[in-house]
Design a protein that fits this description.
Oligomer: single chain
Radius of gyration: 21 Å
Protein name: Restriction endonuclease type IV Mrr domain-containing protein
CATH architecture of the largest domain: 3-Layer(aba) Sandwich
Strand order of the largest sheet: 1-2-3-4-5
Structural class: alpha+beta
Strand content: 5-15%
Number of helices: 11
Helix content: 40-55%
Organism: Paraburkholderia nemoris
């Protein structure tokens, strides 16, 4: 069998605006909300991109993304950008994120995190060029292929959204890579216990079924998160049959949960708070739910071997 070598991407070969376009497109693909590309118009006040980072298990976070298309992300550059962003209109962000084309030392990371803390921002994410490429390959490799092969990304935000959600000539493997995102979330891999936090678990399961069948992935509030290929994009009959089985297994998981609520084997904790996410589960139903999720992940992995999510 021939060995296939994946060469690293030389981001230094591309302009700053091309790099920003790719960073913006990645975060569209990753499901961030309210994304604004400030760098398009100049005068970005330290904010190349701003958006809302979604989480399944905690509140979304307003984040400022700074694109560092340079060999080294220095503390001086990071402090200057964070200081400008902190003084900009719109209020203090919940987090800063730096995406650098070059390496970032542990010392620089620690100092940048401290500088953010001094401004009152507790969360900082810093990606080197290698980390950015890893995340692109994990969640949006087809965008990386387009970028490297010289396909021009649009200039306008709305057109980039359409560009990201277009799936021309995707192979089944590429489609499965994008579909895997619906399972890479706590609803599918956090083990159940007799006392579990289950914020909108049933809704997450129903949204997953809808996403696989239609390609439209929505938040629990009904807003579109992103577009993914649906089962109908898959060409290979065996692969399509496996995904249809996955949908049936996800529906079986939903029915176990709904049945537990009906019989009282799954019940609210009893605190009386209507929005309390804590539920009490009898031992046998917790095991049944874990077994059902393991079957889902195993079936998906049977047609997409790189899939790594599993019950923790």
């Amino acid at each position: 069998m021939a060995t296939v070598t994946v060469s690293p991407i030389h981001f230094e070969d591309y302009s700053g605006i091309q790099f920003e376009r790719l960073v913006f497109a990645y975060h569209v693909r990753a499901g961030w909300g309210d994304l604004i590309w400030h760098g398009q118009s100049g005068g970005d006040q330290g904010r190349d991109i701003s958006g809302i980072e979604p989480f399944d298990d905690r509140p979304a976070r307003k984040t400022i993304i700074q694109c560092a298309n340079r060999d080294t992300l220095t503390l001086a550059k990071a402090k200057a950008d964070m200081g400008k962003a902190a003084r900009a209109t719109g209020g203090m962000p919940g987090a800063f994120k730096f995406v650098s084309r070059g390496a970032v030392s542990d010392t620089s990371r620690t100092r940048i995190e401290q500088a953010a803390s001094d401004l009152g921002v507790a969360y900082v994410t810093i990606w080197s060029g290698v980390e950015f490429e890893e995340n692109l390959r994990l969640r949006a490799e087809y965008l990386l292929h387009r970028f490297v092969h010289g396909i021009e990304f649009p200039d306008v935000e709305a057109e980039i959204h359409s560009f990201v959600d277009d799936f021309p000539d995707l192979s089944d493997v590429e489609a499965l890579q994008l579909m895997a995102a619906v399972f890479d979330r706590p609803a599918f891999y956090t083990p159940f216990h007799q006392e579990s936090s289950l914020p909108a678990f049933q809704q997450a399961i129903e949204d997953t079924i809808g996403a696989l069948n239609t390609g439209v992935w929505r938040t629990r509030e009904g807003d579109d998160i992103r577009r993914i290929p649906s089962i109908h994009h898959l060409r290979d009959p065996h692969t399509r049959a496996a995904l249809e089985k996955v949908v049936r297994q996800v529906d079986a998981l939903r029915r176990i949960f709904v049945g537990g609520l009906r019989t009282g084997t799954i019940r609210p904790c009893g605190c009386g708070q209507p929005d309390c996410p804590t539920y009490m589960l009898e031992h046998h139903v917790a095991e049944e739910l874990d077994d059902a999720r393991e079957k889902i992940l195993t079936t998906f992995r049977s047609v997409y071997a790189p899939f790594g999510a599993s019950l923790r």
